[in-house]
Write a structure and sequence with these properties.
The protein is an alpha/beta fold and 300 residues long. It has ten helices and seven strands.
Length: 300
């Protein structure tokens, strides 16, 4: 059986059709994953994250403002999404989805989410299309319940995981690795445990060499109770908001490398899809499907 895949219909929110965030990619990704036979028993459906769970990683005042549809206009602009009821429902569902993905990874060794990776959301507010930091919320929930004591975040989105770095700054129990385009958003980077900023147009070979050089010794040294892997596909050469030059084959090799390195050490892995941008959701959704295919191939 393929590893569990988490999905919720609320991952697709209502935003203007001309918006540059490709919201329809979540629905299309679920369709592709199902058509490819990767969820033969159906998807695992999460419960939305509660205010109490969200407040483990975020300022309760910010959480309350989001849930009350009362986000100040300046913060809404930083988030970059219209903060309507469906967008808020999506943020809660995605955070709940990553919590469930973490639980399933602990139970089965490997699980993936068809959303997640909102790594620009900081403790005090959202930013960069990210309302709540789902990975940070999930780690804090699993720690509160005593299911894990340590965690490693392997963030391969093209943008630095500044929100995740900020939330876990000073927390020795959570290590954060961000492999990103150095000259891309955000302008103001936060200090992860390890940051690897890559030059524009970095290709498959150079990218994979950089990742392998740091990932293997980091896993051997850290031995975390769980790894959360942000498999953003925006390092792709055709991505609207990326500055790197990975191909589909390069992304697939990256996913296999991370999953193989983590599971080869018998460490549970929870995968989230991260970013991927463009006017046509079809190729973006197909790139996101690479994560789920890599997970299924490893478990086969």
């Amino acid at each position: 059986m393929p590893p569990p895949i988490v999905h919720h219909p609320a991952y697709t929110a209502d935003i203007p059709a001309e918006h540059r965030f490709p919201m329809q990619k979540y629905r299309r990704l679920a369709e592709l994953v199902a058509a490819d036979g990767l969820a033969p028993s159906g998807f695992a459906t999460p419960e939305p994250a509660t205010a109490a769970e969200l407040s483990l990683a975020h300022d309760p005042a910010y959480v309350d403002a989001v849930l009350a549809l009362a986000v100040p206009p300046n913060i809404e602009r930083e988030i970059g999404l219209p903060m309507n009821e469906t967008v808020v429902r999506r943020a809660c569902a995605a955070a709940g989805g990553t919590i469930l993905t973490g639980r399933l990874a602990l139970a089965h060794g490997l699980a993936t989410n068809t959303a997640g990776g909102s790594h620009h959301a900081r403790s005090s507010q959202g930013a960069g299309f990210c309302t709540f930091n789902d990975v940070a919320v999930a780690i804090r929930v699993l720690m509160r319940e005593g299911l894990i004591g340590t965690a490693l975040v392997v963030d391969c989105d093209v943008h630095q995981g500044d929100g995740t770095a900020e939330i876990f700054s000073g927390d020795a129990n959570v290590l954060t690795l961000s492999l990103h385009a150095e000259k891309n958003y955000p302008v103001r980077k936060r200090q992860s445990t390890i940051d690897i900023g890559l030059a524009d147009r970095t290709d498959d070979q150079a990218y994979l060499e950089a990742l392998e050089a740091i990932l293997t010794p980091l896993l051997d040294r850290a031995q975390p109770d769980i790894v959360f892997y942000n498999a953003g596909v925006d390092p792709h050469e055709e991505d609207r908001l990326g500055r790197l030059s990975l191909t589909d084959a390069g992304l697939a090799a990256r996913d296999r490398m991370v999953i193989g390195a983590v599971r080869g050490r018998d460490i549970p892995l929870a995968g989230v899809i991260g970013g991927g941008y463009g006017a046509d959701v079809e190729p973006i959704a197909r790139r996101h499907a690479l994560l789920h295919h890599a997970a299924a191939a490893f478990a086969a």
